Every structure is written in structure tokens, then in C-alpha cells.
Amino acid sequence: MSEVLYERHEVKRARYAVAAVFAVHGAVTGSFATRVPWIQDHADVSAGQLGLALAFPALGASLAMPLAGRISHRFGARTALRGLIASWTLALVLPALAPNLPTLCVALFVYGATAGMTDVAMNALGVEIENRLGRSIMSGLHGMWSAGALVGAAGGTLAAHLGSDARLHHALAAATLTVLGVTACRWVLDLRPTEDEEPPPRFALPPRSALLIGAIGFCAVFAEGASLDWSAVYLRDELGTSDGLAAASTTGFMLTMAVARLVGDAVVNRFGAVRTVRASGTLAVLGGALIVVAEQPAVAMSGFALLGLGIAVVVPLCFAAAGHSGPNPSQAIAGVATITYTSGLVAPSAIGMLAQATSLVVSFGLVTVLAGGLTGFAGVLRAGEKDRPKVTPPGAAVPDRRT
Fold first, then answer.
1. Cβ of 182: how many Cβ atoms within 10 Å?
2. N or C: which end of the chain has fewer CB within 10 A?
3. Among 311, 216, 323, which residue's Cα sits nearest to residue 256?
4. Taking each helix axis from N to C terminus, what angle separates 67-75 and 77-91, rounded to the nearest 10 degrees?
5. Alpha carbon 143 to chain centroid distance?
6. How far is 249 from 271, CA to CA, in rounded Å?
């Protein structure tokens, strides 16, 4: 009995450790995003050149994410995550050091590659812990990512307000976050392959199950990317608000996403992934409709808040479903992650091009239509939901994959 209790304690401790890694990952993103204007000035690039450079993180992530499974197979999950989170936090210093466009592109490629591999490794561990606990935890883990991003953004905002050099700011942030991330990895599960388990391929096309699940993630991330990059512009240009009120709309969107993710596991455990995503899609469509028809800022801000609430849990549930959908969780998660990263890459530019040809109102009409896809195609998450183990009863042994 004592051994069983120890195993359960170890899994719960690993859950908190992975949550801390998610928060650190998010904090890096928040720290970088707030200093992009400084980086643009330092590298002396135009808005168009900056847009080109900002495509390189997604390119690096998409190419590198399939390698995460092989790295975890070679070194074990704990050692792999420790190395990957350190490489990601330290990569934060690179963009601010870039003196021109070519070096900025290279820096952002490395930044994205390390981000993507770490993303796959930590989500795979999250899925494994969810399997052992027998209940949904992925929404909460992604909620910790959102919370970390908000903390990193707050620190970056303060540094920018004080006129701090981003090279110094990011060096200090990278050092702090590296220590926190590596320390947290001490308590994650040390999963290792069995002796007869074949290593995953270096590069492979996503499995069919990942394509279907990734399609839902694509819709959610498209709405997320469009809202993050264009919500403030929408309020300022379409409704004539001040810059401060426009920025508050983006902040409200991020806050509703963070809060919904932190409490989302309770909803998923009560109603299941499919019904949760169907209800989420309905909220997202309602939010999108409010944005499109809004004539007052308060209505549009409410719409963005509802849109954030509606899409918040979708991507975590997509990662969970991918991890439950086949024998190779890392490969499936990498496939879903590649699709969602691609969506995040194309969404802002697609919204901009459509707005230039028509209007931002029409652009967010497209977002609303895609949000409807969450409700229509939520059933593809049923396979992962069906395969999820039930809650382990007290006194039962907890499965262990370690050698």
C-alpha cells in the first residue's frame, strides 16, 4: 500500500512540475512579445521586413517539432525536457542581439525551433500524467502557460516603460527562467522506452488522426491569432476608440482565455471533451457575431471576451486527444502542433489581406465561420476521449513505463 501511495504522490508531484514548465514556456513568449518594437528598432528593419522575420519562428517550430519524440526516446523524457526547456529559455536572448534582418531571421528560426520541440515534449508528458490520473488536466496546464505569458508580458511592459535595453532585460529573464525551468524538471516523470521500442522517425508526416484533430485546432488558433493581433486595431479603426481602450480589449481577451483554461478541466471532467468543445464553439460563434454587428465598443469588447472564452480549452483538448489517439503520442502531438502553429502563422496575415480587400468586419466574419467548425467537428475528439483511462481507484496500482 505504501508503494502505491508513493506512486500516486509521484504522479501528482510530476503534474505540478510540468505545470511549472508550461508557465516558464509561456513567460518566455510574453517576455519576447513585449519587446518586439525595441528589437525592430535595434535591427533597423521596416514593418514589412519585421513581418517576414516573424514568420521564421513558426517555420523553425514546424521543421523541428518532429525531432522532439526522437530526442525523448534517446535521452528519456526528463533529461530531454530539461535540455529543451533550457535551450528555449536561453534562445530568448538571441533576437535582441540581432543587428540586421538576416541575423534576426536566423535568431527567430532558432527561437521557434527550440520553442516547438519543448512544446511537444511538455505536452507529451502532460498527456502521460493525464492518463495516469484518469482525468483531464491539459486545460489547466495550458492555463498555466497563459498565466506565465501574462507574467512575462507584465515584466516586459515594465522594462519597456523604464526604457530598459532589451538585451539586458532578456538576459536577466533568460537566466531566471532557465533556473526555474531546469529545477522544475527534477520532478517530471522520467519516462524511458522499452528495450524493443523502435525510435520514432526523424521526420514523418502527421498521422491521419492528427490531421483531423489538427483541423479543429486550426480553427481555434486562427481565431486566437486574429484576435490577439487585430482586436485592438478593430476597436480603434472600426469603432473609433482610444488606443488605451483598444489595448484593453486585447488584455480582456487574454484574461478570459487564461481563466477559462485554468477552470476548464472541471468542465471537461464533468461533461467530456466533445460536449465541452461543442459548447465552446457556440460561445465563440456568439462572440464573433457580437464583434461583427457591434456599433459600440462595449459590445465588441464583450464579443472578444466571449471569443476567448469559447476557444480557450480547444487546443489543450486537441493535444490530449492526439496523445490518446495512437501508439506514438509524441508523433501525433507534433502533427497537431505543426498544424496549429501553421494556423497561428497564417491567421494574422490572412485577416490583414482580407481586410485590405474588404474590411475588418468581413475578416471577423470569417473568424466566426471558422469558430462554427468547432461545434460541427467536435466529434473527432471522441476517439481520444474514449481511450482515456478512468480514474484510478484508491489502492490500485499506478502504471509505470519507466525501465
1. 17
2. N
3. 311
4. 130
5. 9
6. 30
Give the rounded distance of the alpha carbon of 47 from its chain centre. 25
Residue 147 · residue 258 · CB < 8 Å: yes
Rg (CA), the chain: 21
Question: Are the C-beta atoms of residues 249 and 231 closer than 8 Å to each other?
Answer: yes
* Phi–psi pair at 198, nearest 5 degrees: -75, 140
- For 134-242, where are the alpha helices, taking DSSP H only? 138-161, 166-184, 208-233, 239
Residue whose grid cell is 472564452 = 309
Distance CA 398, CA 403 (A): 15
Q: What is the DSSP letter of 187?
A: G
Q: 245 with 282: CB under 8 angstroms? A: no
Give the ranges where 34-76 is alpha helix by DSSP (H): 36-43, 47-53, 56-64, 67-75
HSE toward the beta carbon, residue 309, CA cutoff 13 A: 16
**Burial of 146 by CB count in 10 Å (0-12 exposed, 13-18 middle, 19+ buried)?**
buried
- Nearest residue to 177 via CA among 89, 81, 87: 89
DSSP 326: S
- What pLDDT band is residue 160 in, cutting at 50, 70 and 90? confident
**Per-residue pLDDT band at 400 (split at 50, 70, 90):** very low
pLDDT digits (tens, 9 = 90+) for 179-222: 999 999 999 998 887 666 666 665 556 667 678 899 999 999 99
pLDDT at 401: 41
Given a contact cutoff of 8 angstroms between Cβ atoms, the answer to whether 170 and 88 are in contact is no
For the segment 360-382, what is each residue's pLDDT rounded down to a tens digit? 899 999 999 999 999 988 998 87
Q: Which pTM was predicted?
A: 0.81
Q: Give which of 217, 210, 258, 254 is closest to 341, Cα–Cα.
A: 217
Using an 8 Å Cβ cutoff, are 326 and 204 in contact? Answer: no
What is the longest distance spanned by two Cα atoms in the chain? 67
Which amino acid appears at position 281 of this protein? G
Which cell numbers in the block locate residue 399? 502504471
Which residue in the block uniquely carries the three cell numbers 532558432?
Answer: 110
